[in-house]
Amino acid sequence: MEWSFQTAEELAAALRAGEVTSVELTDEAIARIERDDKAINAICVPDFDRARAAARRADQERARGEDRPLLGIPVTVKESYNIAGLPTTWGMSPQANFMPTEDAVQVSRLKAAGAVVLGKTNVPVGLQDIQSFNEIYGTTNNPWDHGLTSGGSSGGSAAALASGFGALSIGSDLAGSLRTPAHFCGIYAHKPTLGLAATRGMVAPPAPPLPVDLDLAVVGPMARTARDLMLLLDVMVGPDPMTHGVAYDVTLPPARHERLGDFRVLALEEHPLIPTGSAVRAGVNRVVDALADGGARVERHTPLLPDLTEAAMLYRQLLFSGSAARFPVDSYEQLRTRAARLSADDQSLDAALLRGMVLSHRDWIEANSRRELHRHGWRQLFAEFDAVVCPITPTPAFPHDHNPDPLERRIDIDGVEYPYFDQLVWAGLATMPGLPATAIPAGRSPEGLPVGVQLIGPMFEDRTPLRLAELLEHKIGGFQPPR
């Protein structure tokens, strides 16, 4: 039997029943990577010798009657996580030889749960792209069409899962970096509530792995089913044992509902700042039809929805204020000069990007205060709804574009070009207020490419969108291997 596309749940059951060993699963995964990854380039740092050793230990532990949530299951890890003895570069050439001496907290949790780490997956430079390519490890291709991107920045992990290279992966998300690759590659991913899962050791080299509370950015699970997402999320959640974990642990509340017909869902397919392509619009409507067919209450409009334009502008400011914080002084001063020339009437996304890059601390505090108003608006909305279904990006996967200046790139939406980074408005809808969001497959484009949507849920109620994702999987289908 071939195990490569079995779910983590199925693999765990087979391991417990003695139908397969971890060594056999690991050898099969390694053989598939060695055979198929030359065309995909998802696994940028293999760790096969240690994986085989970990698999042997897992089999020995199971023979002694031990069991853990992921015992013996092959997984991958995004390159940006520190793993002792493997390079962590974030795709940045000056850091090509940086070698951490300790595992990131999430890698430690994976290993403590019994997972077998096959290796690390590819990323864009500095994790700052919607594609995954860099000078150290090259370009990761989409398993459905090698001329297209697999997404970013967790593009290597998404491509690995879609190709059968391990059952699970862990990634991170600041600008859709879990959700966009899942959408492009036809898999599942979950962006947890901000602060729910510790991030220590997921840090740009050569910075020390300190227990920092990040703004906007989270770490989260990727899988080929919604139930596997929950399995992995349960391993990842919890505060850093060096800080908040000294005082408390986390218990996620149960999903609000168990039956599809009990859910109240707001469906969004239009954004005031960028159109939604026809393929993605069809994906949203496919999910809406499944919800309605299952008896769920679906609404298209509500006065409770926070203003989408202001939300996008706030997200743009908060996002790019962080990305430019470590720019060289001369580059930063050039940005300040350009921003000063902007007209006060210019409220475009490009202007918000530039203003965000040079945001003063005073202005950041003001933006953060407006974010809290949006969070309060979402709390009011989720008193009436259980989830929001909407796009992740306006289009399916697009062709590789390695223009060194991302501001010169364009995204084609049904034949019309738009600025490349404008597509982030949908990812920012959940990221700016820190809400959980689950990316699910929602069918195929006319060209046969995967199309996904996101299910946004109430803060710290991550099980609610995950349960909805599981119920929808039974209605509309889930992951399918690339043809």
From TrEMBL:
Q: Which PANTHER family match?
A: FATTY-ACID AMIDE HYDROLASE, FATTY-ACID AMIDE HYDROLASE 2
User: What protein does this entry describe?
Assistant: Amidase
Q: What is its EC number?
A: 3.5.1.4
What's one GO MF term for it?
A: amidase activity
- Organism of origin is Streptomyces morookaense
Q: What is the lineage of its organism?
A: Bacteria, Bacillati, Actinomycetota, Actinomycetes, Kitasatosporales
Q: Name one GO cellular component term.
A: endomembrane system
List the Pfam families hit by this protein, alphabetically: Amidase (PF01425)
Q: Does the keyword Phosphoprotein apply?
A: no
